[in-house]
Amino acid sequence: MKLASEAFVTRIGWALAALLAALWLATGPAYAQATNITPRLVAESAAPAPGGMTTLALTMTPEKPWHGYWVNGGDAGFGLTVDWNLPDGVTIAPFRYPVPDALILFGMMNHVYEHPYALLAELSVDRSVAPGTDLTLSGVANWLACTDKVCVPEKAVISVGLKAGDGRISAETRARFDAWRALLPQPLDRQGRWERRGDHVRFAIPLPASVAIEKPHLFVETQDVIDYAAPQRISRNGDRIIVEARAKGTREGPVAALLRTGDGRGLSLTLAPGAVPPAGDVIATRSVGIDMRLFWTALGGAILGGLILNLMPCVFPILSLKALSLARSGGAAQTARIEALAYTAGAVVTALLLGGALLALRAAGEQVGWAFQLQHPVSVLALLILALAITLNLLGFYELPSIGGGQALADRGGAAGGFWTGALAAFVATPCSGPLLGAALGATLALPAWAALPIFGGLGLGLALPFLAIGFAPALRNRLPKPGPWMSRFRRWMALPMGLTAFALIWLLWRQLGGGEQLVWPAVAVAMALVLLIHYGAVQRGDRRSWLLVASGLLFTVSLGATVAEVAKAERTAEGAGSTFSPEVLARARATGKPVFVYFTADWCLSCKANEAGAINREAVQKAFVRAGVVTLVGDWTNGDPVITRTLAEHGRNSVPLYLWYAPGSDKPEILPQILTPGMLTEIAEKK
Which residue from 70, 81, 62 is spatially nearest to 21, judged by alpha carbons? Predict the structure, then answer.
């Protein structure tokens, strides 16, 4: 993909992300919650005079490594908005922002504040307001907080107590507000000019030659004018600063902008359409480089992790099915290449779709992570029915060409069968991918959309590599067993792991729905699916009672619709061997001075359950924990949990498992390996 295309896709994706996040903030409920940027509203005068004005400051204090955004956040953010609740006779002007910094992360330009900053606004009191009137004002502030790994839309109620009075300001308060005012850009008293020439845009900013500027940058507030991440060529032509960059959009008319003239200093101005003089002497600009090491490391990790996934129980039967298909073809080179490419396409496209859905949901403000589809009972039910369909197909109840490699598709080269089998492999691989791809998938939290999507595609490619190698390497293909009676027996043996997968999904569905009436319609849907599939096989073998097929299909559709409506209401309380995790519970546990072990798990995560059975819940480990006074907290992510998702992201993960060990008195946890052993846990518990 060319850089221009990447930039276009990136900006479109982040524009949609910003819009969806803004809609989420606008429609979500206002309630007290912990934020990564702490807001505080203060007034220069607590007693503004009727007929007069005072200045409000909304101070924003980001925790490290979080940052906030300028009024135009650039490619990947948006500024702050406030829904005010104002008393009668009080008006507030829009906030003015200090000069931001330019931050580029993986090709995305962000206009940010990585340090405490203050937004200033003028408050006016009408003359009709009587002295002594309570003017306490409040509002709901909405903003976007980001690190280089994750973005979180945040909101908080802000308020300040005021009373109409004499407008008195203390010397200390005035000095503090003067310091904040000094960081605001100064308004330029003359208009500039701007023009679009082909795929470039040019700006002329009137500034006397006697005014020195250092490492300038033009922050354009108006949308759809300039490519924010494109390099800016800034020069001086007499009493004008000329800025040239790549254009974006088709905006016409006046443009609002801010020219940074030095660290913490800038000029705000308006530029009208008009002719721009030629460039002059070039001025050195601030360098903002892009480090691609994380991208290449994550991509390599995803490909390697996808390759290893073929050995996992949830994927190996699918790979075996395709090996069976190749053996059936007798090793024909053309058939092998077509099926290999189709299988690869199916795996890559499915991984991209899952990754794209994950990124879109995150951009919309949802706290979700990898394998998010398994957090919803409807998705689990769909996967359960699919597993049952594959199991019955392997047992010979019916022929499903897209899975079993039926004759019709085989005659056309098996491309459709290969594609859908690759898609299935990628879909069912998600529960197994946590321990193998934790770091690589966690890196997608720090990448823009155009760079994150190839990571997910790399997972699909790694998953397909063995079959791709067999398809294009005759030496490997020739080692496949020759067709024979063994194929039917092998196919039936492969029904065993798929049947066990179906039983595991039944257990998961029961865990998610909690049993009782909520399981009735899912059970009916599964039963109707079995009847439909079995009778479909009977029709293939000559049964003429097609009305049974239609009737069972209708009953299946009705029951599936009722299931969707029913499970949408289902909620499940997380259960675990220890206390349920929350930041408050963790804080109380750490305050005891005892070691704390926190593990994040999910019922659909096979490696999580293996670690729990093979290490965490072993008698020797539990005895060691008791001797050391270890407090164990469990974060259950089976049905999804925004708090847990956010905690995972803070530790560079977007899926489970995650194991954290807090030693007494330590500020940061030790992140344990994703494959645990009893000896490892016993040793860490016995450390003094």
Answer: 81
Q: Whose CA is closest to 110, among 64, 145, 63, 152?
A: 145
Residue 310 has pLDDT above 60, yes or no: yes
Between CA 429 and CA 436, with CA 435 as vertex, the angle to 5 degrees is 65
Give the other-Cβ count within 10 Å of 523's Cβ.
14
Burial degree of 210 (CB within 10 A; 0-12, 13-18, 19+): exposed
Torsional sign, CA 140, 102, 255, 212 = positive
Q: CB-side exposure of 298: number of CA atoms within 13 Å?
A: 25
Q: For residue 590, what are the CA distances in angstroms to 598, 629, 643, 663, 664? A: 11, 12, 18, 9, 7
Q: Which two tokens stand for residue 157?
A: 């109620």
Q: Specify the CATH number for 579-685; select among 3.40.30.10, 3.90.550.10, 1.10.510.10, 3.30.1240.10.
A: 3.40.30.10
User: What's the CATH class of domain 3-183?
Assistant: mainly beta
What pTM does this model have?
A: 0.44
Q: How confident is the model at residue 311 (pLDDT cuts 50, 70, 90)?
A: low
CA distances from 59 to 40, 43, 67, 180, 557 (A): 5, 11, 13, 10, 56
Same CATH topology for 3-183 and 192-282: the answer is yes
Vertex 384: Cα angle to 380 and 387 (nearest 5): 135
The CATH code of the domain at 192-282 is: 2.60.40
165 C-beta neighbours (distance < 10 Å), count? 17
Please say whether the beta carbons of 397 and 534 come within 8 A.
yes
Q: How far apart are CA 413 and CA 125, in angstroms?
A: 79
Is residue 609 classed exposed, middle or buried when 0-12, 13-18 and 19+ CB atoms within 10 A define those classes? middle
Whether residue 291 is predicted with pLDDT greater than 80 in this model: the reply is: no
Whether the CB-CB separation of 448 and 14 falls below 8 Å is answered with yes
What residue spans define the domains of the chain?
A: 3-183, 192-282, 293-376+399-488, 579-685
3-state secondary structure of 616: helix
Query: What CA–CA distance (Å, rounded) separates 527 from 559?
Result: 10
